[in-house]
Amino acid sequence: MEIKNPFLFFIFTIFSIVSPLVKSGDTEALLALKATIDPSDILDWKKETDLCQWQGVKECMKGRVTKLVIENLNLSGTLDQNALNQLDQLRVLSFKGNSISGEIPDLNGLFNLKSLFLNSNNFSGEFPVTVTSLHRIKVLVLAGNKLSGDIPLSLTNLSRLYVLYLEDNQFTGEIPPLNQPSLRFLNVSNNQFSGQITETPVISRFNESSFAGNVNLCGAQLHNNCTSTSPSYPIIPENVSHHHKRSKKLIIIIVPVVVGILILCILAGILIACVRKRRRKTRDGKSKEVEDGGGGGAGGGEEGTSRGGNGDGGRDGNNGGKEGAFSWDQGSGGLGTLVFCGPGDQQMNYSLEDLLKASAETLGRGIIGSTYKAVMESGYIVTVKRLRDSRFPRLEEFRRHVEIIGRLRHPNLVPLRAYFQAKEERLLVYDYFPNGSLFSLVHGTRANSGSKPLHWTSCLKIAEDVATGLLHIHQNPGLTHGNLKSSNVLLGSDFESCLTDYGLMPFRNPDSPEESGASSLFYRAPECRDIRRPVTHQADVYSFGVLLLELLTGKTPFQDLVQEHGSDIPRWVRSVREEETESGDEPASSNEASEEKLGALLNVAMACVSLVPENRPTMKDVLRMIRDARAEAQGSSNSSDHSPGRWSDTIQSLPRDDHLSI
């Protein structure tokens, strides 16, 4: 047979030889790993089979293992360092619940690793220092082993750390001054730590349960103040009587001085208490004036949040932001209690008193209520939403619904941490997100300046985040978001999109005269614009479609887009993006691949904004379409397909994985 193009044949031959070798790299590494931890041949791994179908291989990408979960299989032996470090595409690695022993090896080759679970094994030796060089690590779980020695100070360099569980080991020394804003879960209990717990704003949010079982540890969380002990010196037996006389004289001098000092301290304490009481009265009066209209800090109409609060409205960056202190009026019902919601939230080391003493900055006001940034005396920051109607719905219904919302935990949802209920007051407490909202990303700090369409790669990433969070809400029977818009999508520590204000529409009194602003109204599906109509899953899908069009065009929906443009929406979107290209601020590349991805996004948006609710896809279908488009984009993208705009290339290319869901 004559070969017409020898060069192409040569390239094809080389590729066919090299490609299997690239894919088999992980195969050889896993088999080498199996040889050291599986003497009983529990893992059914065969070289001639597809490694992506092997037991414990949960995810692959382009033939490389990205998620390896081998749990509760009674594996033993030690980990092979060379084999592990060849698996350099791993995002999640778990050997939880086995009997693996020896030291934790050097893992600096796993530079993509985000979650590491080595808990409930027999590992010994010191803390694996090389883990602190893996800057993408979010979840680190080493609990239930025999690890010892000090925790390296370099642990504070893991800026994305979200979960740190080191309990039930034999660690010694002091706990490093952890101060990563991303840290939400911490447990170092039942070790041999000593010294004082460093009071950083992050550590101060955790309570006794995170530190218990360390006998020589002290600090505010353990209700055990640290005291310095003076060294004791041996008594010299010579000239005892001389020293005895001198001691008597000293006692005669010291006792009156000490008594005098104590009296002064008592008087000073009484004076300080009086001053504080007077200041509190003054402060309460001022706060009351603010609530009664004496300068609330947020503008009229619907206001959102540009600094990471939970916004009710669709407009960022125009808030007065007046600071003060919380002074919630408890009415005749007396002081209520702060109820923490989800598992682990009880570790949040703040109380109702801390919240009431916090300085408050108004972030926004809307149809559900007002939103505040609360800075506690410890430096810890939360977002507090004060509901507008404290008597609707009835108390039991309110509690039942807020506890359902409070149990939701997902990387793309802003968690509801706690709620407060008194006769005349209802508060919801959320995490504070300092990176702002999706609204501020698209439109800048002012609603009328800086708006621009995002590059399609950014649109795909944001759309996947939002769709994933929305699907998680819909998987809970009867639960909807009800108020989806760009100001209710906040940006997390890795600039992931996180939904907030979900499930709050049942707290709005349908008889309330307060009306939504124009932008909020047109996010809603036509069948739900009457506030008395219940919000449905299909209505959330419609809002998602409007949000997607906002990302593609940079235009806030101040009008009914479907009524205005109808079937011409795709043409309108392309014309807006072409205008940006002509102005030199290119939102998308003009190549064929970019046009294909833009078309895929438009198809999703058009399906979502169908005027017939039954014709709209479910969020499960929407997420599948987006992931299919994003997978194709990752496979075909090149350097010309990345235009950072306000979203850096680094943020765009961040892979996703589920928090603690392995």
UniProtKB/TrEMBL annotation:
- Alphabetized PANTHER family for the sequence: LEUCINE-RICH REPEAT RECEPTOR-LIKE PROTEIN KINASE PXC1, PROTEIN KINASE DOMAIN-CONTAINING PROTEIN
GO annotation (BP), single: defense response to fungus
**Any one cellular component term from GO for this entry?**
plasma membrane
Where does the record place the Protein kinase domain?
A: 357-631
Leader sequence range is 1-24
Q: What is this protein called?
A: Inactive leucine-rich repeat receptor-like serine/threonine-protein kinase
Task: Show the SUPFAM superfamilies listed in the entry.
Answer: L domain-like (SSF52058), Protein kinase-like (PK-like) (SSF56112)
Enumerate composition-biased segments (Gly residues).
Answer: 293-323
